[in-house]
Design brief:
This protein is of the alpha+beta class and about 180 residues long. It has one domain: Electron Transport, Fmn-binding Protein, Chain A (Pnp Oxidase, Chain A), CATH 2.30.110. About 35% of the residues lie in helices and about 25% in strands. Strand 4 and strand 5 form a beta hairpin. The longest helix is centred in the first third of the chain and has 16 residues.
Amino acid sequence: MPKWPISDDELRAMYRTGAANADAQWWARFWGRIHAWGVMPRRWVTLEVPGRRTGRLMRVPLGMADLGGRWYLVSMLGDCNWTKNVRADDGRAVLWRGRARRCRLVEVPPGQAGPILQRYVDRVPGGRPHIPVPKGAPLADFDAVAGRYPAFEVFADDGTTPYTPPRSWFPIVAAVGAVALLARR
């Protein structure tokens, strides 16, 4: 049964070559702006990191996995441009969510990434079609593929304080707007 707005097969097709096709690039620009504004739930961010060859800033919309009070970024495509760029810049990056926040990404060893990948598949719907383990599968299945999908723990810029994404301001603005509309009646 197809899923709205894009089926799992269509999502996988957008990255068939391992890189984003034109449709995926359009969606990435769209979601990158939305996530950067900070209007979506707190797990949605836009990662900004300099290109390892060009130095030109690239932005990627990502969903984060939360586990045990810590936050993680997982690459649904495996070792891709953003993961290589983060490694090349010694884990330094910027996360956009309402405003820019410098952070440090520390790669999680594959032997410890299974629970993170499991949580990612559980919480980030757009990443699910790219990971060959279904939601709800046992941890051992995620452990088996964890080495193919890099995971990074997110820290504040100092590299020691765990990062916590700020909450969205959108519900507050929507509530204030609703109250204002009702008060006018």
